[in-house]
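Hi again,

Forgot to attach this to my earlier email, sorry! This is the prediction with MD6 bound. I've pasted everything inline since the attachment limit keeps bouncing my files.
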Amino acid sequence: MDPFSPPEGFRLLPGLLDAAAQRRMAAGILALLDDAPLYHATMPKTGKAMSVAMSNAGRLGWYSDREQGYRYIERHPFTGRPWPAIPEAVLDVWRDVAGYDPAPECCLINLYRDTAKMGLHQDRDEADFSAPVVSISLGDEALFRLGGTTRRDPTRSFRLASGDVLVLGGAARLAFHGIDRVLPGTSRLVPGGGRINLTLRRVTRP
Ligand code: MD6
Ligand code: FE
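Structure tokens for the complex follow:
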């Protein structure tokens, strides 16, 4: 008996990006990190650093620190510059799969090296849950855990490989999810090893 069934609006699109598209996208993202360097956001209240390194593209970037917690900001927290534009190839993925016309305002860039992981969470720092979150995996494979809309719901883990695209829309927009671990050495895409995940979101109401 498996009590798990994915919430409505969960879509996994394995291998949506072919190897050439993955290489171009990863190179574009790494280039943009010269302008918007990676940082480790810290947890509200405790100030504990997240193991995943982050940056953003788009008008708004997701950020967190001890003092002000989770939020979206218009400028890089350390350089003070506006975030770089979301690469066109990334916007194309949104246009292909989101089923939501206004363009994403945020592309959160997550880099997992070594033992980095992400605890079970909901994406709920946005003002508009009618838009899906679209997520693109590049590089090493990861074990992604998906649950339901309450923390107590049963969960299941899925393997996400480079080029896979995940859509959390509908009821799944507020599903709990996280990354249990990354499987080192499963891809050669990211120089130095690791996994890049891009999540595209609407933040404000259109
Ligand atoms: C990750 N992804 O794949 C983390 N959030 O590294 C997320 O937190 C995520 O994949 C919302 C929707 C899809 C996701
Ligand atoms: Fe998330």
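DSSP finds two helices and twelve strands in the chain. The two ends are 43 Å apart (CA to CA).

That should be everything now.

G.
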